Amino acid sequence: MSILRVGLAQINTTVGDLSGNRAAAEEAIREARRLGAHIVGLPELTITGYPPEDLVLWPSFIEQNRNELDLLAATVQDIVAVVGFVDRDDAGNLYNAGAILSEGRVAGIYHKIHLPNYGVFDERRYFKPGSTCPVFQVAGATVGINVCEDIWEPVGPSEVQSSTGGADVLVNINASPYEMTKLDPRIAGGEMSKLDLRVKMVTELARRNQTFAVYVNQVGGQDELMFDGASMVADPYGELVALAPSFEESVFTVDLELEQVREARKANGRTRYAPGELEKIGGVRTVDVGEAADIELPPTSKPQLRKPGHTESVYKALVTGTRDYVRKTGFEKVAIALSGGIDSTIVAAIAVDALGPENVTGVSLPSRYSSDHSVSDAELLAERLGITLWKLPIEPAHLGFENLLSPVFKDTEPGVAEENTQSRIRGTTMMAIANKFNWLVLTTGNKSEMATGYATIYGDMAGAYAVIKDIPKTLVYELCRYRNEAGPDSPIPLSVIEKPPSAELRPGQLDEDSLPPYEVLDRILDQYVVQLKSSDEIVAAESALGVEGADEATVRRLTRLIDINEYKRRQAPPGPKITQLAFGRDRRLPIANRYRG
């Protein structure tokens, strides 16, 4: 039986590190060759990293990217490699491309046809769509190559390559960001994990075309985007046969028995398309890139079929994003203001898991309103995590601000302005520490706070990376429980999880003095920000649920708070995108805006 051994290399590239990415690709290809692969796929835009954004507007960047590709090609022997890069034609047009490397040369190039231009994607700003759908003869198999979004269309290059070009195998290289859920109108309830959606898409692609579908995804963090890998292979009957671990670099191989393609097509027949339907997508051409090396194949390294749980995947995404943001920006150490509250607690745990305890410093900044149990909770957490904790009471600075402002604040009632000076003192102190020691400050505000403005601009929002800015408060509690259950150890004090949340900026203050219960708030937030429901629609939905707390006045007050605090969020540091719609590059609303949903 004819076997094609495919390699899947999900590696962590860095945007702009052209030579570093080339070296990582070379190592992955070498490993795939050692494992006996005839062909290996690497992620989308391997050479440049994804997404390169406006870097591609520099001609020198494009030229160096091509030079690095050629250097990589020269090292590829006795294996075929599919590598992403930015191609440029004679007219200066740019293409998101996949290069097929074989026997020391670039044997062929595919230009991505379907360019995403929604959510976090902006590819039409930079790239032209391709117009041909090449297939490649590799070790006795016909292989179609395409890129990411090309398989998200129901009829696309894969259909041309399999129906017209006779492809036995489809290799799709990707940089598909992680999301904990993905709304999909095609399924009941409209929601599933993005990994489940990808599995559904890839297995359906294979079944529809009666081919093997090989899906290779990037892994790692890039600014606000997290890439989870989870590369996979499906057989011609639509069954998942391999799934790589999430959030881990991996090179593995799978043997594809090509006779299964013939059997599936004989049993099920071929999908028929309307005249001219496939021709509209692009023409097909065949390129021969070499025969199989006559070697005895070692055992395959196919991974187990295991999907991470919901909270596990979110936690891994946050750890990955924090680690890669710090490392890829050239830093080693971070500082976190530890209040003893649940938000700073989970950020500290994530930072330790991402960077190691030796690279994390906690700073306790108690004020006259800080409770003894909050201070002791911060101390206990630092001890359990094994991190250094500095204690710097802010009372001297607090008194100084009161004296400074007293002439202009006299004859007024104390309120939010006075409360927020404490947060701004803390923000200034944290930035001074980071500035002195060349560290980064990790901020601790969650999505529920960022949505409603329950965060202080130039105060607790001041920092370099907002680890949980896309994590609703209710999910923060889930993450804390998960971290304790998953180990190692159980570092998060139970008292932190059980006590009512409070900013502790005035005597006896609780979050629920100003906000509804977080279960209610987060449900409304999801409907308004992610599902784009109007206030009237939310009121109707909440009424149908029969849940107390989400009356019309509450809904309208919260949606108004979300609207009027856009200016704050625009000035917030970046943080990992976890939900389907995150504040930041994913949501672009005008600040000066009188529309109220």
Question: What would you say about this model in short?
Answer:
Helices cover 36% and strands 19% of the residues. The protein has 17 helices and 22 strands.
Quick tags:
597 residues, alpha/beta, 2 domains, 6-stranded mixed β-sheet, 17 helices, elongated
Distinct helical segment count: 17
Radius of gyration from CA coordinates: 27 Å
Strand content: 15-25%
* Proportion in helices: 25-40%
pLDDT under 50 segments (min length 5)? 183-189
- Span between N and C termini? 62 Å
Tell me about the biggest sheet?
A: 7 strands, mixed
The residue-averaged pLDDT reads 89
Protein structure class: alpha/beta
CATH superfamily of the largest domain: Carbon-nitrogen hydrolase
Fill in the CATH topology of the largest domain: Nitrilase/N-carbamoyl-D-aminoacid amidohydrolase
Looking across the biggest beta sheet, what order are the strands in? 15-14-11-8-7-6-17
Count the domains: 2
Tell me about this structure.
Helix 9 (395-409) crosses helix 10. It is built from 17 helices and 22 strands. The protein is α/β, with parallel strands linked by helices and 597 residues long. The chain has two domains: 3-288, 4-Layer Sandwich (Nitrilase/N-carbamoyl-D-aminoacid amidohydrolase); 310-510, HUPs (Rossmann fold, 3-Layer(aba) Sandwich). A seven-stranded mixed β-sheet has the order 15-14-11-8-7-6-17, with helices on one face. It has helices spanning 18-34, 59-73, 157-164, 194-209, 259-268, 310-328, 342-355, 372-385, 395-409, 416-437, 447-452, 473-486, 494-498, 518-530, 535-545, 552-564, 566-570, and strands spanning 3-10, 39-41, 80-88, 94-102, 105-111, 132-138, 141-147, 169-174, 182-183, 191-192, 212-217, 219-222, 225-228, 232-234, 240-243, 250-257, 283-288, 334-337, 360-364, 388-391, 440-443, 465-466.
